[in-house]
From TrEMBL:
Keywords: Cell membrane, Electron transport, Heme, Iron, Membrane, Metal-binding, Transmembrane, Transmembrane helix, Transport. Residues 10-178 form the Cytochrome b561 bacterial/Ni-hydrogenase domain. It holds the Pfam family Ni_hydr_CYTB. The chain crosses the membrane at residues 17-38, 50-70, 91-111, 147-167. GO terms for cellular component: plasma membrane. One of its GO terms (molecular function) is heme binding. It is a multi-pass membrane protein. This is Cytochrome b. GO terms for biological process: respiratory electron transport chain. Its cofactor is heme b. It is found in: Cell membrane. Gene3D superfamilies: Transmembrane di-heme cytochromes, Chain C.
Length: 179
């Protein structure tokens, strides 16, 4: 039976649910962003995909905070990192993922706080609409989008490292520990 907590041999059930559940949600989030970028404005598919972007982004932000707290509580239980340069690169890659997963939604929250549309999450008003936007806060929305694409490419790198480097070249058990 799967243990809830992490062990030196394998990530626990909670860590794996966070990882794979959030991976699926990020896939949906990236699909909505790609549709927003690629499809014509008056498009039913775009409207459908874009309609959940804010709610999903807010959900992901809350999940990444919970996942971060869980991860910190499991640090001493987790598998040892790879030694040397590759281990440091993996650590930096994971830190970049987490930093972007926190910074990107924070930028959108700043933009929403200073914007004319406000922000609601699951029917709860987080920020009321403003009569006039606050320019410096509104500018955060641009960084939100640009860093979102950076996150997309960092995630692609993460996947490639897991599949190509660990699974195909090293033939180690990295993927099995997270499966």
């Amino acid at each position: 039976m799967a243990t809830l907590t992490d062990t030196p041999l394998r990530y626990g059930l909670v860590s794996r649910i966070f990882h794979w559940g959030m991976a699926l949600l990020f896939l949906c989030q990236f699909a909505s962003a790609a549709a927003h970028w690629a499809l014509p404005r008056e498009n039913a598919l775009l409207e459908t995909l874009w309609s959940y972007h804010t709610t999903l982004g807010t959900t992901l932000f809350l999940l990444v905070l919970l996942r971060g707290l869980w991860g910190l509580s499991q640090l001493s239980n987790r598998p040892e990192p790879e030694p040397g340069l590759l281990g440091r690169a993996a650590l930096l890659g994971h830190l970049a993922l987490y930093a972007l997963m926190v910074i990107i939604p924070l930028l959108r929250l700043i933009a929403a706080a200073g914007g004319t549309r406000g922000l609601s999450y699951l029917g709860i008003e987080i920020f009321a609409p403003r009569a006039e936007k606050i320019a410096w806060m509104d500018a955060a929305a641009e960084w939100h989008g640009e860093l979102g694409w950076l996150l997309f490419f960092v995630v692609i790198g993460h996947i490639l490292m897991a599949v190509v480097w660990h699974n195909r070249i090293q033939k180690d058990d990295t993927l099995r520990r997270m499966a």
